[in-house]
Amino acid sequence: MMNHLKNLCMINGASGDEGSVRNYLISNLDSKAEYHTDNLGNLIVFKKGRKSPSKKIMLDAHMDEVGLIVTSVKEDGTLTVNEVGGVDPSVVTGRQVIIGKNGLSGVIGSRAIHNLSAEEREKVPSMESIYVDFGAENKEDAEKYVLPGDYIYFLQPYEEFGDGFVMSKAIDDRFGCALLLELINSNLEYDAYFTFSVQEELGLRGAKTAAYSVKPDVAIVVETTTASDINGVSGSKRVCELGKGAVVSFMDRSTMYDKELYNIAFEIAENKHIPCQTKSMIAGGNNSGAIHVTGCGVKTIAVSLPCRYLHSPSCTAKISDMKSCLELVSELLARAAEL
What we know:
By secondary structure, this protein is an alpha+beta fold. Helices cover 25% and strands 26% of the residues. A hairpin with a 5-residue loop joins β4 (67-73) and β5 (79-84). The protein is globular and about 65 Å long.
């Protein structure tokens, strides 16, 4: 799983541009798995297990990552950009980036601090205040290489550091993809569908069509979620913590999770000694929001990896939590088949 995670994080694939991620997943699927791609770009996989469950089970992870997109070319050859998904402009200034299919090198710039008024220095930067410089002489020169609609990706190496930590772009949600791939390539006890969905960062779009196609009775969404376990943050605002295991939510801004599955998850965690925690704050959302209201309704649970600096070029997570997520999801799959 860790090998696949590293490879997947290094692939560029923002919302609407997930093709390279999808190709990697397809090339690493168990030969016994059946798959197809729908019109929106979701990869839908079916893997036969030793038994057929009474309920149809779907596991989901999204392929897309956050990034930027070129909106115009300025007279001086720099590029105006907008976000693809939730990107905080305050964490990207000065970052190296890769531009377009040709992989041009660039850097995210903004007005120098000595050119800002005292009032402007106190304000949070906006997306309109940043630009991308890739060394073009002027607009005419820049347009030979870049056009509006080209994607821009953060240039950030995958790195393991400290006491079992991992830092990379796109851990959200290439971790979920790596975990699902690990399960597909294992000897499953029960038949299951696996959906690698597109455009989660733009509003859960791919999950909506994938769930409509599969028509599951039960869904397990594998995600990452924000951890704010840093100095100066206390109580519920810490949300969850690295090193304390998989995160199972009871509610977020898009889903009220199935109570039976929620209770089963913690029962499994206790009996199998799997580190597990819940979110202490009702915030955010994931593909569960689209999946659980599809068709006649889907019993849904989300198992998430706690991650610091989410949606930044340097998402940070812990390997021990990844292993906890894998163990918990594996056990949940077996229990969901018995509902």
